[in-house]
Amino acid sequence: xxxxxxxxxxxxxxxxxxxxxxxxxxxxxxxxxxxxxxxxxxxxxxxxxxxxxxxxxxxxxxxxxxxxxxxxxxxxxxxxxxxxxxxxxxxxxxxxxxxxxxxxxxxxxxxxxxxxxxxxxxxxxxxxxxxxxxxxxxxxxxxxxxxxxxxxxxxxxxxxxxxxxxxxxxxxxxxxxxxxxxxxxxxxxxxxxxxxxxxxxxxxxxxxxxxxxxxxxxxxxxxxxxxxxxxxxxxxxxxxxxxxxxxxxxxxxxxxxxxxxxxxxxxxxxxxxxxxxxxxxxxxxxxxxxxxxxxxxxxxxxxxxxxxxxxxxxxxxxxxxx
Length: 322
Hints:
By secondary structure, the chain is an alpha/beta fold.
């Protein structure tokens, strides 16, 4: 499927999604139905607050138990677009036996080392609960069933200490991925800084190889995480401060031109990322232009297509407005 074909499909279906929401109607599906299979629910609220987070979370937390990892992008020093600390604090305090989890990074940053990462966490205000840098003590290989490019990926070793994962994602653009949703958060985000991130980024000759095949490797890295946790993982995308740049850009991130939309949540990773992209594409052209250009110029829609090929979820969903 080409990028232009995908764009037409998104524009047609997304206009319906947002139009129905504006009219106070609940659409049956974000996309046209295929067959009689029950579609996963994606819950939506316009309330971007701790209350809004908890309202969607209680709809998707049935399988969350035991020691719980909250996978969050905590950002580069003083990043302007990262999720509000007070909102995350109130959310985390309602999840028993939980900790924020991160891994060190591959690119040039204070977060390349555990010591520098901890200093950045302190500077950014992530001091209200435990923050586990999962690759602090090395990594562990997780298998990728059906992987075409990767058969396993190195992730932070501490992931083995958790029973469940809540993927709390700031949905936005991304320099290489086109957009960063739940898939990017668990794939690149859980890969170890020294090994795993290089496995996903590199095409064997170029460490920072982008394009469709990078999207496929990123999907396979994410599949290792979804396979590891099974039903005990759930996804929340916060569509706020949606710069074309990721929170890894820090203070150099471009100012957002796309309006805040709300919070989406699902137990289906493909459905929640698909719904997020659909909502962006449904916006007026002037509001979506920059973010759509970033997505399409990086072949970002391949993330969604390849997640479907890998059997990671459904791009047909029931949107439930709260």
